[in-house]
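Appendix B: complex inputs.
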Amino acid sequence: MTAITSSAPTAPTSAARPRGVIRDFINQQPLGALSFVVILSMTIAGIFSEWVSPYDPLHIDFAAILQPPSWEHWAGTDAYGRDIFSRIIYGARTALVISLTSSFLGSTIGAILGIASAYFGGWIDDWIQRFMDILLAFPIIVLALVVVAALKTAVLFGIDINLIVAVAIPIIPRVCRVVRAAALTIRVMPYVDAARAAGYSDSRIIFRHMAPNVVAPYLIMFTAFMAQAILLEASLSFLGLGVTEPTPAWGLMLSGNAADFYREAPWMILFPGLAISLAVFAFNLFGDSLRDYLDPRFKV
Amino acid sequence: MLRYTLQRLLMTIPTLIGVAVLVFFMLRVVPGDVVEVKLRGDGGTVSQEVIDSERKRLGLDKPLIYQFGDYMYGLATLNLGTSMWTERPVTEEISLRLELSLQVAIMATIFAVLLAIPLGTTAALMRGTWVDYVVRIVTIGGLSIPSFWFGMLIMMGLLYYWNWLPPITFTPIYVDPIANLTQLIWPAMAVGYRYCAVVARMIRSSLLEVLNEDYIRTARAKGVFEKIVISRHALRNALLPAITVIGIEFAFLIGGLVVTEQVFNLNGIGKLFVQSVSRSDFTLIQGMVMMLAVFYIFVNLVVDLLYAVFDPRIRYG
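Resulting structure:
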């Protein structure tokens, strides 16, 4: 992550047309393209869960408890006879909704604070950075847990708001740092001086002139934190402090009494964990490839 | 060096005060506290009077500003207060569990660093080959596989191959080293994998950067053996940025311990933290957060001072 702190945003020259960009990306970053396919299929599973999943994820069937993987139940069933494969598909929706909103919130607030910090400088910069220092003194999951402890449970329209805020807050200072560094190089550009000389307002300069030029680090951070957010949501749910039963969530499927079935039903542990790992892996790899692609300093 | 250290220590005070203020007020923004969890948690019906008297006993009925004053006075006199749940001193609750967590953390560090140096170095030296790709996939795997699931896989493997699970009760290393190590090596591996991945990636990228430096070309041009170029000229310089990562990740290992201790049923700091969060035990949460922040700042300082030891160009006035 330190590698991109000083990256000036530069668009690849060979890719002026949108189709050229995609072909270019596939050629240069085959692993990145592959991980995008995984992300895409996860998204489809999340959006169209009702059509994709073979069973109702909440349907309890005591006649089919702890069944091993078979043609009827691809990933087996759990202690309540619920189909694990269907729960994983619905779990993709939970994971995506929470991680997308939280990393969008966290990255955007972080980016705005970072640009403002770089643009205004002086005491505003000092105060914002000192505040970020405070937030950075916590490991990600510890800060998230403190937020969970603070907000208790807050559910709005069936979405755990407390969880989204808990995942978003640790992202803010980390994005703020990187975007501030990128924005500092932009602030001294002639066009920012020109905009200021033309008498534009501060907010117009920040949003219309500077923000578009830190899109590259923003996008890289956004995808990287998608991975972190999925992992964090899964960890919190695993600890019993995130998504609550009976909502299907990957971390939740591994928590509680799942550990009692190490021997009898290893599929109960194997498949949800694989889903988390694959999703996080795909976002990490995609973020990595995006960085290599957008940041020419890393090209061979 | 001494003056620099003192200066840095003074500079940490505002940050620590900031942490204390932030956590104190965050926890009290939304109503609900330990009394409700304790008395009404299991759906029990307890009259409001009982709740009120319990609040009064714990000092939760006082105005916020008084509570804050008490808390800050306690911090200034290094008194973290008593847990609202067990009503034992916070420092006692922490110190009971510190040994176990610290040992897992140290073992994880050893495991991670010993594995990360060869992994990162070979990846950098064989850049673009299949070896590099394999290392890249293994390290991204370390960042992606949740440590709690990795821990569960380890447990399943132990059960399947040896029909054995690590014991739950903690044996200190000076009582029975073998029992202690066979118990703690598994959680250390579970948290160490991610740690190792982070360090290996750092070593790879910083070694690649160093290998482009002029002094490496000079060393090669004057006919120094490639082995010596790598080990003495390149690796020594490339390890500097790695030290930072090793230090910060060590301070942040508690993050991995929070979930891993749950999997292995270990009674350590991480488990205590999760417990205090689910019980809304404010004093214990505050105490642990302060401890972690102090630890993090201390490790950061040590890392910066180590820089001066390893890099003769850096001198602190």
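Chain B touches chain A through 51 residues (CB under 8 Å).
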